[in-house]
User: What shape does this take?
Amino acid sequence: MKTLKFKKDLCDKILDGSKTLTWRLFDDKELKIGDELEFINKDSGETFGTATISSLYSKALGTLEEKDWKGHERFISDEEMYRTYRSYYGDRVDKNSEVKILSFVFRPLLKRFNKESVIFIETSTVKDGVFCDIYRFDNDNSKDLGVVRVKKGHKTPLQKVLTGDKTLEVFLEGQGFLRIVESHGNEITYSFPSETNPVEVNVGDTMQWEATEELVFAEICYPPYEEGRFNNIC
Assistant: This one.
């Protein structure tokens, strides 16, 4: 997953919703619309949320217009703006430097889940269009938590449950399906939003989520996930 770093004062603006736009010069990440990003506090090195790029365009830094500032912090003067970006990128910054102007949809990390304190571990890319934020429960080592985002038109891997005491699939938001084939062959399809929540998946069952719109669900594993719990069939 691509990462973007922000100084603490800008992290605070993102967290309070006043900053929804960022400018990036000399892009070496090949940023594009739809990219999933991990946002990092540059001062502490800590991840404070994830985001999706919702729009992106480029122009010269000296040609900025009023619309380019919507959702971005202001500078007292153009000279302050150039001085700020030179502190990031060096003296090569001038009015002709290309700036990528990108809007993002931000998602702060969870502090609690179902009234229980959780601690973020990392974000992983499961496959194209599927991303998982991994957490542990602060005061309960009997389980762990993954919050999975599935982009529209994408599916999670088709997985067979091989081990574990209990696996819960919990719909959070969006729209899509959870298909389960039980160990004895019975197939069940859950459509979300739905009243059936959470869904328990048993050892020997196979499961797969599909997003008809962007979809977010949680997966709780008892005991915490270890390699070999699931077999990815495809």
The radius of gyration is 21 Å. The chain has two domains: 2-107, 110-232. The CA atoms of residues 74 and 81 lie 8 Å apart. The helical segments are 8-15, 78-89.
